[in-house]
Design goal:
Layout lengths: L2 H41 L3 H14 L4 H13 L3 H14 L4 H13 L3 H14 L4 H13 L3 H14 L5 H12 L3 H14 L6 H11 L3 H14 L4 H14 L3 H14 L3 H14 L2 H14 L4 H19 L2
Helix pairs in contact: 1-2, 2-3, 3-4, 3-5, 4-5, 5-6, 6-7, 7-8, 7-9, 8-9, 9-10, 10-11, 11-12, 11-13, 12-13, 13-14, 13-15, 14-15, 15-16, 15-17, 16-17
Length: 323
């Protein structure tokens, strides 16, 4: 082949590439215009027309993972879970490290009450992005939340080597030990976390919880106070510190102040129970009854808490009847 023929061939190939690029660009532009249309239609309540636009967008550029995910999420909002899973799996096939699509697949599995399926997608996401620590943190939390302590321990052993300076690893190990009632080991793990990052969210709150479990009330008070200092809107630690005062019958005025502050941030029946106990310990049986009845009216899905609240009501009523 002479030089001129080679040059002509190269120009032809270049022109063909530009043409294909232009065609692809037009298809992608059309697809995203359809996606915008789908968003507008769905926002206006035209769900069926919106779904049609999502489908047209995917048909225009079927190899676009973002469009596949948008279609999957549209199906998820309609509770068409099988179709949602199919579109989201296609997004993962096109882009194996697509974190948002994995999270949507987890949501689909949980909507189907498929805990094992959700866990499988989370594990796959972590394997696809081995350097993304938040995924492993969530995976450990998932293991702990489902009492899969052996899996959590094995993974934490690996993570301690992979992320040696990450305070959340010993923090999670502390949560593991607390879950299996090894409180001293939990405190040792939390102390390791403190050495790495003493401002880690929830760290002092959990240290306070363990000390409370061990009846180390002074240490619990100090830890809960530290947690509140770090996060003045930490209503859980406010309530826990108030309950620590209630259990001891000490600093009741301060406990009531903390308890009311926690309820301003979040109304929970357990927080109302704390306030009722504080008033009871203070001798104000009337207010104790008001707040425990309010807690019962609010209700709870926890059978254990429901039984506790009822026992508190019976206890307060008996005391009130003697005054």
């Amino acid at each position: 082949m002479n030089i001129r023929r080679a040059a002509v061939g190269a120009l032809y190939i270049s022109a063909l590439g530009l043409l294909l690029l232009a065609i692809t660009g037009c298809a992608q532009r059309e697809a995203y215009q359809l996606l915008d249309k789908a968003h507008r239609l769905e926002g206006a309540g035209n769900v069926e027309l919106a779904l049609e636009a999502y489908l047209q967008a995917v048909e225009a550029t079927p190899g676009d993972a973002h469009l596949q995910r948008a279609l999957g999420r549209a199906y998820l909002r309609r509770q068409e879970l099988v179709r949602a899973r199919g579109a989201l799996q296609e997004a993962i096939r096109l882009e194996p490290a697509y974190l948002d699509a994995y999270q949507d697949l987890i949501a689909v599995a949980l909507a189907q009450d498929d805990v094992e399926g959700a866990l499988a997608w989370l594990e796959m996401a972590a394997q696809s992005m081995p350097k993304y620590a938040p995924l492993y943190e969530r995976l450990v939390a998932f293991y702990l939340g489902n009492e899969r302590y052996n899996d959590a321990e094995d993974l934490l052993d690996q993570l301690a080597e992979r992320f040696p300076d990450a305070a959340w690893v010993p923090f999670m190990r502390g949560s593991l030990f607390r879950g299996i009632d090894q409180y001293e080991a939990a405190l040792q793990a939390y102390e390791e976390a403190v050495q790495l990052d003493e401002a880690l969210p929830d760290l002092w709150a959990e240290i306070g919880n363990v000390h409370f479990d061990l009846d180390n009330f002074g240490e619990a008070e100090a830890a809960f106070t530290r947690a509140i200092e770090q996060d003045p809107r930490d209503h859980r630690s406010m309530n826990n510190l108030a309950w620590t005062y209630a259990v001891q019958g000490l600093n009741l005025d301060r406990g009531i102040e903390l308890s009311r502050a926690s309820l301003e941030l979040q109304e929970q029946p357990s927080y109302m129970d704390t306030l009722a106990e504080l008033y009871y310990k203070q001798g104000d049986r009337r207010r104790a009854l008001i707040w425990i009845r309010r807690a019962i009216r609010v209700g709870t899905d926890s059978e254990e808490l429901h039984d506790h609240l009822q026992k508190q009501l019976d206890r307060f009523q008996r005391a009130y009847g003697r005054t």
